[in-house]
Every structure is written in structure tokens, then in C-alpha cells.
Amino acid sequence: MRIGVLTGGGDCPGLNAVIRAIVRKGESVHGDEILGFIDSWDGVLAQTFIRLDISSMRGMLPKGGTIIGTKRGSPFDHDDGIDRVRRCFDEQRLDGLVVIGGNGSLTVASMIHEQTGLPIVGVPKTIDNDIIGTDVTFGFHTSVQIATDAIDRLHTTAESHNRVIVVEVMGRDAGWIAAYAGIAGGATVILVPEIPFDIADVCEVIERRHQRGRYASIAVVAEGSVPVEGTMARREYALDAIGRPRLGGIGVDIAAEIERRTGIEARIVQIGHVQRGGTPTAYDRVLSTRFGLAAIDAVHDGAWGQMVALNGTEIERVPLEETVGRIKTVDLELLRDVAQVFYG
Ligand code: F6P
Ligand 1 pocket, 247 CB below 6 A? Predict the structure, then answer.
């Protein structure tokens, strides 16, 4: 078979491991030809790709990023987009396409499959871990580890100066990274997009902790967090290339408010794209490899319109349409029954 692969949306560690697994099993077991489309759907529309074979994937297991590039956006951004996708399948004689992406890319894959019947399989990817249908996405574990390593380091400098350090992590619509890195890093308070925060409550928790004596505080904040209406000025965001708020900076506002209200020195660290860079953890290398092997199996089983997923420890297939228009928000019990025990 001739199989296309594309990576869409924000990059993350593990993408190359998925591609490597697809290529290894596709070529060695099935004799497939694998085409890596450059820069996500743009490569499909323009029919720009590179041939991927086992030798070209050497050294890719631990390599962060994606060797075929990625972008945001979709064929639906163009009047003739769907026709050009069809033309690419015809002219490149594609027997299937593996879309490795987050909510946006998988929604596009589902819509194209539903509208055209084209043979498409999905692989769930995002550091945000906000994709319905899979227990976890590859990239998440690595981003949590990167954030936790940073928090561990920040504890010592916060304690040296008896300060509050606000650590802003990624997480647009869901606070999974903040929740896990906050718990793993021993945060005094964790803020997530799912629960609008009252800065007065945040300050009360921090003051309670500092009254114990020389206790520094780490506050972990997801970039998508928002204040309760009327409790704090709402930050205005510019829009990104696909019209979404370009997040980043809520931590700056929170640190300023904490220092103004409590008198305790506060500093801010925005981890930003460091969370998306570099080599995947061992956990993510294994999950990515399993997802890639399951994706090429799904292709050869003709499981079109489905994505591979993790259910417990098992790799399963779920309909792509299950992910459309939905976000897997953070488990609030995790925050209430685990994180909040250690607040203050
Ligand atoms: O979707 C993953 C993600 O890292 C979000 O957490 C973050 O808000 C966004 O991508 C950043 O997008 P970009 O890399 O396009 O600025």
C-alpha cells in the first residue's frame, strides 16, 4: 500500500517515534511505501512530501519535534481544499492517510472522512492531554516532566528568598499539565481553565502557608486560566494564525496581584514552548511507538474514520467522530481530593 502520514497542530516530543513505528512496520511487514506530507495539510494540498523508509528513520526514536514539519490550519480554509485533497489521493495513489494531531487535526480528519469517504486513520497527539477517547496522549507525560523539573528547581530559589513563584504552564482549554505538574511539584495552589479563580482565595492560601514561618510558595497556573468575573482585570490576547487567542501572560497578572495584596515578593516563570521541545520520556517513546504500530495495523485492517487510543494499558480504536467538538477537561476530583490537600 501507499500510505501518507501528516503531523498537525502544535508539535510535541514523540511525533518522530510514531512516524518511525509506522514506517518500520509498514515497510518491513507489509512492504508499504510511506509518504511524509510536509507541514501538515499544506503538504497534502500541494502534494509536497518526502519518501520515508527505515533508513531515513534512523535516530528518530528520541528526536523531538517532527521531521515532516507541522502547521495549524486545514483544507477547509480553502474553497477548493477538499477537491485538492481528493486530487492528492488520486494522483499520489494513496491507499490511506494517517493523521497525527490534536483536537483540530483530528476534527478535520473526521470531517474529511465523513464528507468524502477517504481512507483516514487518526493518532491522538497533544501535550494538553485534552482529547476525548484516549486515557492519555503522547507528549503529555514529557511536558509534565519538563514542568516538574522546573518547579523542583524553583522551590530552592523561592525558599532562599521566601518568595512566591508563579509558574505558568501550557494548557489552553484543559489544565491537565498544571494539575499533574502541580501535584508532582508540590504546588501551594494550582489554577486551571476549568475553574475560574478568585485571586482573593489564592492570596488567602498563600498567606496561610507563609504564616507557618519561612515557607515559600509555588503557584502553578495553566495559561488558559481566567479570573472570576469582576475579581481581576481580564487579560486581552492577540489572535494566532487560526484566530485563537494567543495565550500567555496570565501568570504575570497573578504574580503582580499576589505581591500587591499580600506584600510577599512574587516572581513569574513562563515555561512556554520548552514544554514541547526536546526528547520524549521513556513512557512517551513507548506510547508513541505503540500508537504508530497500531495506526499501521488499523490502515491494513481498513479501520477508516477511527483513531488509535489508550484504554488503561490496552491500545484500542475509537471513532474519530467521538473527538469532534469535545475537550477532555481535567478530572476535578484530582484537584479536590489530591492537590487541595496540600494547599496552604
Ligand atoms: O495545543 C498545544 C499547545 O501547546 C497549547 O498548550 C498552547 O496554547 C498552544 O499549543 C501554543 O500554540 P503555538 O505553538 O501555535 O503558539
Answer: yes
